[in-house]
């Protein structure tokens, strides 16, 4: 029983059935008891007739009593099919007529005495009464082996308990099946919601749900719609803000790059004259000290680069989240993709004196090429930022056995020999804007988060492990080939 509602329904259905079965057993016993009371009355009524059946005193103590059974007594004995008997005994206990086994102690008065006795595998209901007859005082006994209560007790298991037990078991399975079948739409709705990605806010099918839970589904759809609208609004805001920032930041970065090149490679007066020539004429009407060192210009260039990269990463993150469910899937050549990214970052690696290597084997996957290129670019950029000069960064791709041993899968991998990531920070570095305390290098904490989002959009995950010989970081993404 997989749900609390199912358990409650089974209990509410089966407990009353159990109570009814017990009540039925009790009524059966009461009916058997009433039948036994009626039987006792019938036995007592036959005792005077049995006494009148004695027509004379016997000639001797050992001679049987002369009897002429009354019709009612004779009918009683014949109608029971051998399950009825009588006896007539003297006060000293000697049986003078009837069954010898039907004997016992002599009653102290004339009141009837009832008891049960086992004989030949049959349990008899016996009435014994001291009666005055033409042959003197005798103890008359009548036995009935068809007593309803005794038969009920003897056959309790086979006629009552066993059928009720079989009925209860059959009812349990039938009710369980009926409840499961009745709750199947609700269970399917539960499983459908459980299987959903946290980012899947599409509406549930109202027509496929039972009438009883349809208001709940309608309310959930309304909630999904509101959350989806809010999330879309936030995504649009981030995308619009990042897009609007790209143009002025690109212009600012281009200007600062020109100043920095002039400051680093040209004369001091030359680059300062260029800077002055590009200042607004309105500003030049006032005396301004524009003495700026080359170090300040380089710091300004670094800040401009970081800001421009942050805007690009915010825009990329927003595009990833917006196109996860709607992007066109195509066949992607991972070796060619790695080569493209390798050439894109080759100059940056050379400028930092990092050995950027490429190890590619033929591999293909189904996905969105621009997203995979963005993911691999973020991994390579992250490795180049944190790997010191003289280090090594290697880009790999290929096909290998799947982790679940269900075949093969393609993979892309970026490995470096930089400082690596402590184990306690592995999970947190995949969160947006998280940077390890004391981390060196420029960064905004979005590179690995973007890579993780893209890997998730392709049904995979970004796995971070130590590099070769426990040094650096190895970022791997397995993708279905």
Top keywords for this entry?
481 residues, alpha+beta, Beta-Lactamase, Heat Shock Protein 90, 3 domains, five-stranded antiparallel sheet, five-stranded mixed sheet, 12 helices, rod-shaped
Order of helices and strands: HHEEEEEHHHHHHEHHEEHEEHEE
| Residue share in β-strands | 15-25%
Using the coordinates above, name the CATH class of the largest domain.
Alpha Beta
Question: What is the name of the CATH architecture of the largest domain?
Answer: 2-Layer Sandwich
Q: For the largest sheet, list the strands in their spatial order.
A: 2-1-5-4-3
- Overall geometry comes to rod-shaped
Classified in CATH, the superfamily of the largest domain is Histidine kinase-like ATPase, C-terminal domain
- Class from secondary-structure proportions: alpha+beta
Q: Average pLDDT, to the nearest integer?
A: 77
Describe this structure in words.
- The protein has 12 helices and 12 strands.
- It is of the alpha+beta class and 481 residues long.
- The strands form 3 sheets. The chain has a 5-stranded antiparallel β-sheet with strand order 2-1-5-4-3, covered by helices on one side. Strands 7-9-10-12-11 form a 5-stranded mixed β-sheet. It has a two-stranded antiparallel ribbon with strand order 6-8.
- The longest helix has 52 residues, at 214-265.
- The protein starts with a helix and ends with a strand.
